[in-house]
Amino acid sequence: MAGPLNLKLPSTSPPLWSSWVSPICSIVKMRWTVSGQLEGSSLTTDCGWGCMLRSGQMLLAQGLLQHLMPPDWRWADCHPLTDVDFEVLKPRSPSRPAAMSLPSFSSSWTSPISQRDPSSGSSEGHRRTPARYPEASHEPQLEALHRKVVSWFGDHPSAPFGVHQLVELGKESGKRAGDWYGPSVVAHMLRKAVARTAEFHNLAVYVAQDCTVYKEDVLRLCESPLTQELSESWKSVIILVPVRLGGESLNPSYIECVKNILKLKCCIGIIGGKPKHSLFFIGFQDEQLLYLDPHYCQPVVDVTQGNFSLESFHCNSPRKMNFSRMDPSCTIGFYAQTKSDFESLCSAVSEALSSSKEKYPIFTFVEGRGQNYGLEGQSGGSTDGPANIFSCNRMSRNSKRGSTDEFVLL
């Protein structure tokens, strides 16, 4: 099988990727940095405590690229992958040959967002509508947009999704610089950050409550009038679902379900990690999760300069680890551009969730609104007040930990 880089690869046991991994080096990667002093703190770096913030940035960045860029886009300055880059993906046993099948792309902007994968049993047959930028086929404009997206995550107080802004938003949830941020808290921080950014009048972020996506809440959030001047009736949506996949360790019964979720084109990744270590999961190969790791400290890049280097925001190859090492506390991300996409997402994800051997699914989609079930917290609209964090009690009855959203610092 040949990928878009014309790499001849074995066709057996291919890894499965979220739709935006196209190719690997186009993924925006965030790392710890040594930057200016954070307001209200003596800290000048997020090294040692900000890894979940960095993982959350990577998740949001992939959602934004999927929202703004054409499906066939990839970073023009991507370095060709070498045998060294693929070394991490080689199988541990000769009896289990590995393969890395990079997806190929159609030149059409109306390519199907997903086609039926016979190995997954799931289907998303809807087609993605053209991107919102009519001249985006001109490569310089695409690269300028890519650079702009990256700049939104810069370590600068004015960057809307930078660490400075996220730390400020964390104060509303009782967090401060130097604290540990769990995946559920970060999900709400990302929601607030997008809601407060004027450029994203046509994008909303919904955070599931109590492991439940309330479909009417999503519809109300996305169908609400944008402004009096705009006639658009639907906001694209990033759906973030904080979950717990076991007690103190990952419940093996959920592994197949996680695999099926990562197969879906609507999935934009998972933030979580292994104990003491936050990671950004982008796919899997056999019994190994593929991930990007933010635990590398580097000098800050000045994104206010027009020609700032993009190299440190990308990497050539992911790492991998066994599913058993994954921390059970995580947040799963999805993206739907249109109302039809959202309906197909609900169907495809529900089918993937049904593969769990457990009595209770990882999370559910239900009709109606959260307030109809006694949940007053707004998961998508309001940006004021503390984040409403709900524990998935039905999934963590045997948990011995006091919180479903805490990790242990390195």
From TrEMBL:
Annotated segments matching region Disordered: 107-139
InterPro entries: Peptidase_C54 (IPR005078), Peptidase_C54_cat (IPR046792)
Subcellular localization, as worded in the UniProt entry: Cytoplasm
Span of the signal peptide: none
Domain of life (superkingdom): Eukaryota
One GO BP annotation of this record: protein transport
Record-annotated Peptidase C54 catalytic domain positions: 37-347
Transmembrane feature ranges: none
Catalytic reaction annotation: [protein]-C-terminal L-amino acid-glycyl-phosphatidylserine + H2O = [protein]-C-terminal L-amino acid-glycine + a 1,2-diacyl-sn-glycero-3-phospho-L-serine
A molecular function GO annotation: cysteine-type endopeptidase activity
Pfam families on file: Peptidase_C54 (PF03416)
Name listed for the protein in its UniProt record: Cysteine protease
Gene name, Swiss-Prot/TrEMBL: LOC109105742
